[in-house]
């Protein structure tokens, strides 16, 4: 009975979240549908699928790239440049600042941290007019200098996320690097930065999506007669007599969405680093569909530590002891947390000891 109730509850939650997902995806579906319609049908038949009469094929995409008084290729270049440089600047500067704040722990570092947190709650509308004046005075009103402005606005959230992650990293690794002769700069780039990969990906996705889709900041800071990003270009997409082609606008909106989706999917795949429980299980049971490199690395640890296969084939129990081995790649990541959380109950109840071994550059 409990199993039946649990199944019903899961099915109900699946249905609810499917409806919520559909609500969020529906605007994107409308953009896709209307990007293939003639301009007159976009406003009159917005929710209808393209018909033989309204279907335009790829003509809207071609027209969108050539329509208007400003080259679309320049807008694409400025958007890519501003997004890449701004995001890289935010990731490098804020990760270094977060490492300093988390490790030093002085009064000054605490003030810096809380100022960054406070900046997250300040509305952009409160500072946008003074920002425009400041950007003009400091000559930050070009695509080559506006990343500095984005650094100021993106630092708050990035520092907040990086500080929380750095505090969870073992200090012993940095101490070992110092003993080996690494200075602060080399320790950060060679030891700390690789361990920040999960947070780097998370912050990078957030910042890139924000900068790429941002309309208001470039609109206020940049000279629109010389520089346009894609959102501004779409807003001012018009012909010689002020005529707007809604089909072409929808086509360009769709084109502007695609790079962000591709980037997000790539980062999502990269974030899933480490060997899963299924990989370890297949290696220990001598099953296929595992790379030879992964098989060799896992079995080398098993042989070195003297562990034997446990009954569930998801962890290893050492011979003549209560030690349980957990195999992960890197140090602290999602897989590490999931493995330790799953085994923590067993370890506590059976008075076992968790033994963690790492595969990769950050070996113990």
Q: How would you describe the overall organization of this protein?
A:
- It is a single chain.
- The chain is mainly alpha-helical.
- Helix content is 66%, strand content 5%.
- β1 and β2 form a beta hairpin.
- α5 packs across α7.
- The longest helix is centred in the first third of the chain and has 33 residues.
- It is globular and about 75 Å long.
- 25% of the residues are buried.
Break the fold down into its secondary structure elements and pairings:
Blueprint lengths: L1 H33 L4 H6 L14 H8 L5 H33 L2 H13 L4 H14 L8 H21 L4 H9 L4 H12 L1 H17 L2 H6 L8 H6 L10 H26 L5 H8 L7 H14 L1 E3 L6 E3 L4 E7 L4 H16 L3 E7 L5
Helix pairs in contact: 1-13, 3-13, 4-5, 4-7, 4-10, 5-7, 7-10, 8-9, 10-13, 14-15
What share of residues are in beta strands? 5-15%
Average of per-residue pLDDT values: 77
Distance between the termini: 48 Å
Weakly predicted, low-confidence segments: 272-279, 309-322, 326-336, 342-364
> What sort of overall outline do the alpha carbons produce when their principal axes are compared?
globular
Q: Which structural class is indicated by helix and strand composition?
A: mainly alpha
H/E element order: HHHHHHHHHHHHHHHEEEHE
Strand order of the largest sheet: 1-2-3-4
The count of helical stretches stands at 16
The whole-angstrom Rg is 26 Å
Helix content: 55-70%
Biggest sheet features? 4 strands, mixed
